[in-house]
Write a structure and sequence with these properties.
By secondary structure, this protein is α/β, with parallel strands linked by helices. Helix content is 33%, strand content 18%.
Length: 273
């Protein structure tokens, strides 16, 4: 389905893509190497779409699948709670279990392969946020994913010590991730230091497993921090991003875009068409 007045985002290309027998709406924009942008809770709300536009403006082709919620519906407390409740009962998301992949990541891997066929280039980037934050790690089993970004990866919810250190992937996937990082792939992670949904233990586990191939951007949200960032801050790239030169959240977005440029060779990209 092309752009049109019936779409919540008329400036974006709206597509209905069927992969593994499941059809999902995917909004696309831009030209260049592909990036899969996975929305946070409660869904593909306007702030996420704007992030997609910013990434596309940097010379990338962005694919934004709608996985839960209603595309275009504004952020709201009740809406967020309802979306989280539906995710809790969905079989596609593993919110509490350890050493398990969320089943939806298989669909996302197929989307990454499709995007690479359409866009060509060195490979595909991926950004996960909040509930989807760790999905970019699971997608790394496929060679096409060359630039995974984990923004505030919140699953599994960190109640027990094991959950706080868990990466939301099974042992076989972790072994594959280690193999790929040993071969040169890097993983970029973003979090606020006092975000209770993203335990420090999880980032330490990534350091332990991946060594210097894990690049951590941890933004001070503790008491008295120089940018007056709330200790409740969570959404690094969208809700809590401050578009002001030198602000650590804006620098984080700039780091993500630079990461894509480096890992996907944006400057040398040629349109396969």
């Amino acid at each position: 389905m092309a752009r049109g007045a019936t779409s919540p985002y008329p400036d974006l290309e709206r597509r209905e893509l069927t992969l593994r027998g499941v059809t999902r709406t995917v909004f696309c924009t831009g030209r260049g190497p592909a990036v899969i942008l996975m929305h946070e809770t409660p869904g593909l709300y306007p702030g996420v779409a704007e992030l997609g536009r910013l990434v596309a403006a940097a010379g990338l082709r962005v694919y934004m699948p709608s996985m839960f919620g209603e595309p275009g519906r504004p952020m709201g407390a009740r809406y967020a709670a309802a979306s989280l409740t539906r995710a809790c009962v969905s079989r596609e998301f593993v919110l509490w279990g350890t050493r398990r992949n969320s089943p939806i990541t298989a669909w996302l891997r197929d989307l990454a392969r499709l995007a690479h066929r359409e866009c060509g280039g060195r490979g595909v980037g991926a950004i996960g946020m909040c509930l989807t934050g760790g999905f970019a790690l699971a997608m790394m089993v496929d060679d096409v994913v060359q630039a995974p970004v984990l923004s505030q990866p919140s699953l599994p919810f960190g109640v027990t010590p094991a959950q706080r250190r868990d990466l939301g992937i099974d042992d076989a996937t972790l072994a594959r991730v280690r193999t790929r990082t040993a071969a040169g792939v890097c993983v970029l992670g973003l979090r606020f230091t006092h975000d209770v949904l993203v335990p420090a233990e999880r980032f330490q586990r990534l350091r332990d497993e991946l060594g210097d191939r894990f690049i951590a951007v941890e933004i001070d949200s503790g008491p008295g921090n120089p940018h007056a960032i709330s200790r409740l801050a969570h959404s690094v790239l969208v809700l809590d991003r401050v578009d002001r030169p030198g602000h650590p959240t804006r620098l984080a977005l700039e780091r993500v875009i630079a990461f894509f440029h480096e890992r996907l060779a944006v400057a040398s990209w040629r349109d396969p068409a």
